[in-house]
Batch of 2 targets.
Target 1
Amino acid sequence: MLNFLVRRTVGAILVIIAVTFIVFVIFIVVPGGDPAQRIAGKNATQQNIVNIRHDWGFDRPFYVQYYKMMQKMFSGSLVSYTSQQNVLDQIKLGLPATFSLAIGASIIWLFFGIAVGVVSAIKAGKLSDRAITVLALIGVSMPVFWLGIVTRYYLAEGGLTSIFPDGEYVALTTDPLQWFWHLVLPWCCLAVLFIGFYSRVLRGNILDTSNEDYVRTAKAKGLTPNRIMRKHVLRLSLIPIITLFGLDFAAVLGGGAILTETVFDLHGVGQYAYQSINNFDLPPIMAVTLYGAMFIVVFSVLVDIFYAYLDPRIRPT
Amino acid sequence: MSEVAQPGQPLIEVRDIKKYFPIRSGLMQREVARVHAVDGVSFAVQPGETLGLVGESGCGKSTLGRTIVRLYEPTAGQIIFQGVPIEGHGARKLRPLRREMQMVFQDPYASLNPRKRVGSIIGDPLKIHKLGDKKERKARVEELLETVGLSPEHYNRYPHEFSGGQRQRIGIARSLALNPKLVVADEPVSALDVSIQSQMLNLLEDLQNEFNLTYIFIAHDLGVVRHVSDRIAVMYLGKIVEMSPAEELYQRPIMPYTEALLSAVPVPDPDLAAKRERIVLEGDVPSPINPPSGCRFHPRCRYATQVCSEIEPPLVEYGNGHLAACHHPLNVDAGLTAVGSTSAEGPA
Amino acid sequence: MAERLLEVKGLKVQFATVDGTVKAVDGVSFELERGKVLGIVGESGSGKSVTAMTLMGLTRDVNSRFEGEVVYKGKDLLQVSDTEMQQYRGAEMGMIFQDPMTSLNPVYRIGEQIVEAIRTHEKIDKRAAKNRAVELLRQVGIPNPEMRVDDFPHQFSGGMRQRAMIAIALSCNPDVLIADEPTTALDVTIQAQIIELIDRLKDDFNSAVILITHDLGVVADVADEIIVMYAGNVVERAATRDLFYDPQMPYTWGLLGSIPRLDRPRPERLHSITGSPPSLINLPQGCAFRPRCPHAFDRCTQRPPLENHVDPPSHLDRCWLDVEYKRAHRGDTIAGGKPEAA
């Protein structure tokens, strides 16, 4: 186990370095204008731009720039090109919204994904299963930004009915009820996609597992169908779901729900990423990517460990 | 280097061939142990001959078969094909040789690509080796289908439309497409019903006569092996423990493992079954990761003595081309001592 | 006369599929007495596995239809409800399957799986059940059972897994053990061990065994009575010696002749039965074996009944051929062609 952790940690560091490097190279390669010019603003003179370029190090070779940026990143002093704000602080501001969105949505999608998956597997072939299949496919097909806008139009304040507030995030500490109420729509929109997907995967797993030889043995022992489903079929069928969930959750926690956060104006880390990309602002992009990559990497290690615990045939390598 | 076999020269010879699989663990994934799948095997097969390789799971017979045709890279040892050592050949040099050596696999359900049509499965080897144009290839494939007892109309069908026995015929047709000299058949009939099995064995025999093929026939069923083989090699934990002309092995097993193996084979004759002495071996076949010391069979051998656990017996000839590796050989007259030669050539 | 545990009368099992109705079992009858081993021999598609699974009620499904009777200790199991059937499985009848690698749940320990079987049918606390599991493992010949009871299936070898399966099947002292190709996936030396084990346990547990296999050699050794199945039918039924020494069905001759045997000189050519088993959806008219039978004549277009034609009266077969003709002509088939010149 120790060997495994050491190797994975080393691997993780390499992955993160590679990620930041790739982001940096993309930024350099993609034409998007001169950062110095943007920092200088609208009424800058040529001399201003040259000065800024020098101050910020834009006139140095790119690997030097990269090194300097990483330095600033890890000392917490990285600053945005456009707004001069400290990137790390901005990310911290966005954390509560992102975490709230991620945790709430993930609970919803895990619960309903599993429930719907089990029901459709049990009723496989029947009308209810086919209806669920159609709904699941619709769920998977609806782009979250479209769904977000549609629900806002129909259900949010300022829209057709004014059941829910129209976006924005209210801190939990400020007003728990409003916090909850503001998050209902974003939670549901984000969850719909995953519910559709997870239920399909689980349904398939359950149907496959039910045909396994050890399920036949369980029947031959005289176990009740209920027990067979719980202890033999579900236990095995859920293993892939849990591993999927670990990574999906990590992604959303890491600011991956960019579209949801933006459509609902939650000011989380994802939305910050969106704005930075729009502004072609490298420091925040880099920081958010790094932040997200860390979550994915850590969770993938956790998922591997958990998987080995669930399935004794697997040893983490 | 001659590409044509000289008279008297074996078609294929292996010398002290070894195949180990590493087991990696630890921080740097260092090799901490090895699976000694094939641990020093030598024999030669004459053109037109059938060598049977028999043994239980873990004995290495399948690994040996694949190593011979270079599906696996040998860890050590030599493979000599028509007088030319090929174990070190790179991919380019090996390519023309792949036409000469082909394999038939065990599982007719897994060894055919379910997404390809039969015509493509059998015809692809021709395409890969650039033999003939499209029309010629199709004609050849249809010819092959007929040869194995299928119909040319099956050209456009998919594997799932066939039964197990028919699929195995397709596999055989595929292996014959390039006119190989050597066919390594890895348990080709184990997955088939008894009545289909005998059809397949007859077919293999006919094909051997018609195309002058040389077979290395791998099986765990001693009855099947006896029927098809000229000579048989018995493997245990990566080594050959006995090798002899086919009939001789069954009349006069020398190594106690062979004796036990023969006695374990169920015989469809109730009176005979009740009368004969069944030697039921204790325990399981040990792991090829840590083979026992000395003679690998000694923990399960009822004749084992001290020397058996210490010194590994060499493979020694007892006359008539019959070799065995045992400190206490059975069925050997006191006067008939080892001839001393350990070469494993076929009958002259 | 030993106690008659099981009586199957005219069992028919059909499955509705997209391609049509599969007549997997088309009229099978036999009896099983305590202390006896009944061998059911047949190839793929013969219906032997479906018969066995039906005895355990494992073929019950929306798409299956049953006819006939399966009378176990006086009760027709085909009429019993699903819930009641669960009580029979494991407690009265145990079953082991072909592939021990996949027949055990990989994520639970061996001991847990045995305990689960025990506690399904008996009110017993976990510790007592575990002790019994250890004893069962010892009985089936697993060394160090106190340690191995906590192992996972993948830590056992193939032969040991099959022994564990037997332990599970016998854990509640059933009176009937059904073994469906228990040794097909095992090495021949392990196979011998397992067959010997099953035979010994039958006496220890005072039960009966139904042994299903395609290997005539296996049943020759251990079975008291043998049923040969073909295309869902019983085509021959006899005491073991009678089947091997006076076989009445051309299919049986074909099977005997197709086996490469170690106890006879090597024939030039193995006998092979031409063609393949019929589709169970479109069974041929008359005798199911007719298309492949070299001795078929005009009467064979009518399906023969399972009847007795020879001595002893327990030897039944489904063939129109005259007994004298059979005895004169079967030698070639069974011997499998001329032996090779010495």
Target 2
Amino acid sequence: MPATSSPDRTPGDPLADLHDALLAWLPQQRWFPAKGRQVAGLRTVSHAVVSTPGETPTVEHAVIGVSFADAAQDPVGGSAEERYQLVLGVQASPPADVEYAVIGRRGEDVVYDGLADGRISRQFLALITENAVRGPLRFVAEPDTEAPIVGPGRPLIGEQSNSSVIYGERAIMKLFRRATAGLNPDLELHRALGRQGSGEVAPLLGAIEGEIDGEPMTVAMLQTYASNSADGWSMAQASVRDLLAEADLRPDEVGGDFAGEAHRIGKTVAAVHLELAAALGTHPLDARGAEEIEAWMLERLERAAAAVPGVAEQRDAIADVLRGVTTAGPSTVQRIHGDLHLGQELRTPTGWLVIDFEGEPSKSLADRVRPDSPMRDVAAMLRSFDYAAFHQLSEWEQSADDPDPQLERRAQEWADRNRSAFCDGYAEATGTDPRESPELLRAYELDKAVYEVLYETRNRPGWVSIPLRSMRRLLTPAGRGER
Amino acid sequence: MNEGVSASVTAAPSDEDHVRDVTEDHGASAVEEPSADDFRHARTLPVDDEWYKRAVFYEVLVRAFADSNRDGFGDLSGLTDKLDYLAWLGVDCIWLPPFYDSPLRDGGYDIRDYRKVLPEFGTVADFVELLDQAHARGIRVITDLVMNHTSDQHHWFQESRRDPDGPYGDFYVWSDDDTRYSDARIIFVDTESSNWTYDSVRGQFYWHRFFSHQPDLNFDNPAVCEAMIDALRFWLDLGIDGFRLDAVPYLYERDGTNGENLPETHAFLKRCRKVVDDEYPGRVLLAEANQWPADVVEYFGDPEVGGDECHMAFHFPLMPRIFMAVRRESRFPISEILAQTPAIPENAQWGIFLRNHDELTLEMVTDDERDYMYAEYAKDPRMKANIGIRRRLAPLLENDRNQLELFTALLLSLPGSPVLYYGDEIGMGDNIWLGDRDGVRSPMQWTPDRNAGFSTCDPGRLNLPIIMDPVYGYQAVNVEAQSNSTASLLHWNRRMIDIRKQHPAFGLGSFHELGGSNPSVLAYVREHVDVDGHRDVVLCVNNMSRFPQPVELDLIAWKDRVPTELTGGVPFPAIGELPYLLTLPGHGFYWFAIHEAEER
């Protein structure tokens, strides 16, 4: 499909009549990340009819490009155009239960978000089990697995960056909203882990693949659904609340102690690392590779220093710690999760699952699939325990003039205890204690904290005190290593 | 036969006549066992194949419930006098721990005579009267039967040690040394150092899985099996509604095994079940097997035929995890154990409980979990006993009414038949200064009067002291006072039992956990379709946290239905397309009926 910038509409663009409707509809979608940004234009990148003639409703697949007026000023480096995938249902008078998903009208037809339509999600599931090809979309069942044949899917509500439908609590299909050329690491790693027989991820059942710019693109993936699960972040929050409600008990003395779970999470993450290494290999990190990582960290530091005075003041001290990546000595790299935090771990009745292997959203695909040290994931988890410990405090402090040093100390005790339990669990499973590489761990942790400071400054100013506090701690000698 | 163990045994007697013959030959005193025909039989209730699935059970310690003859000891007649109270409360079945003649060195689990009632408790005739009066009120009665062992004062053991060649010579497990079956664990680690004890009379060691004064019977001897089945028949003929089979995993011993859950044990239980099915339909067998659910389901027997061993079995690991979940403010300890619990045969049912006459047993938890339970619930070392915590429900929960209600709501709504422990319905306390497990076996507190209304004897004569502390003492906590206040825990318990009875889903229904995004909230649906196609759906939502919590539940399967809260009948907003939002107070819970659309 020829690509042309809106508002100049290309004759024959099947979505031409819908551009205005889409511009109004997009900012209401939770997965549309640039709510605060000024949209300059919208164009159709590709479009295809997926349904066979005569089928009702008509199903279309499209990729749209959204360009932004403020691209140059974006400190996190948002590009000028972001591309998003749409699955559209088209019918003259669609059923009432998709009314909330209507985007607009095209001639006689109503066009709506196809994932809201149970007929469409049921059809997609069936096509996956049949390994069907429809237009540019290839539906692929994962070998040696069996997708459950259940009825229509139901949209999952409350999701952030993608859109999913759930099939009778048995399976979940996730449509990747951001359209990127190449194999999506979420699909790639789930496939690799599944073939390792991993018990730490929800088994992959299939995928939908397409094309963009003449290259393959991952459209969607189908997985077993962990219906009875809660994420690690909410569980950690319950534990912190329990601690802070006590007058003077220590984290190991309160009923809601989380250390047992933190230990299990450590073992789970370690198992994922071992399985990824077994599936996709490890490489020794040579000096050049380490320098590349260091350069990347320093570049990110520069961007943060430019935007946040608190970072700029400490710029040199931070850079010293980040150089630990090159001075720490030889290490190995492998495929990792890349965007790990407590919210990416699900507690099920049988244990923990790691989810969402897409990698850090702000990075390019090439950066996301580049082998990196498992320490990056470990450091990210340690950061997440800090967040969990201090989040409650930051909620309270917004109304208080001064942080209560007693509460801060107790939150720190919670973080220390659970970070330590996580490392214990990790060491138990891999035989290598991450705390035995303090320079490396500290560099990765500080790198993450610097990124968080920038992110929070831009998105959630009320939370910025959390990474700032950690940043200061990581810059003092007492912050070295874990207790 | 148990080859090799009993070194000096001749041919084993195989039937009763033979027993008598051999007995006479040796001049030993074989007791003429009483027959059920010597007694009046109680009236029977109509046969109901599913009563145990719907029933609310209530465990009564006879000696601690009511004393009718002023000897300081509760007795069967005293219990008979209190049946109206139990009927008022809504109890469907009373479970009596052993009331047999016994030297009482293990709370009556050391039986001296299977066909005699402990004299302090009364007589067999008193028992028949209790049974008759209970049946008159629609209440069933089951009791413990200890098959694994007897008291060392049992006539069988006395004969066995005295005369190895006599009719009872092979009734127990004898050995020349104490080395066999070394893979079997020691259960009462506080008091026993070996499962073998030397008997100087016979000059051999005898096997005991529990106390050394409780020798294990030798089930490899067919005469032992016959004697045990005859003991079952004796009470079933009198009209008893079933047995809780105590310590059932340990009946047989085999080298190279831990001596638990052996195939021979299951084969014997199938034999007992057949006797019940053929001769006493509607009566039940309940297994006490403190094992993991995957092992316990074996005690239900063959699922192909709906179960052909025990009708019921206790779900031991669930109980400590309810306590753990609430302290951790996380549903996962409960979710985890229920996910590990296999499906059970169609005619089988779990028995679930919060507390009983034993310690809160921590055998079915990991070491870490046990440390955790001790730290949270047994802060004083005196609160521990064996591998567990010897405390009552109310003190375990620091007398927090909200938690007492939450725990009871869980007990009454999780899959299985609930077993209440006497006194917990009024929130009785315990006395950790009493030895062994007596701390949770103190007299029932009926009134604020002398001896808590349990007995009119001199207070010094009481079998165990009444609880007298300022919080749980009988002047503060007693049935009379709570009967007079409709806001009392007693009335609350009665209302909840009543609600449970109105909804067959609680006893008969399937169980489906809903999950939900809030890890502190445990939500599940119980659903039952009766033979007429009437569907009973109950939604239970429980907040494990002490803080108020919101939860969003996926109830799309019941779209457009209106959940009706069960204690008050208030209709809640109809279920729509979006997740159903509920807010719960700290340790709060809801029970909802989800009616069929057309019933609204």
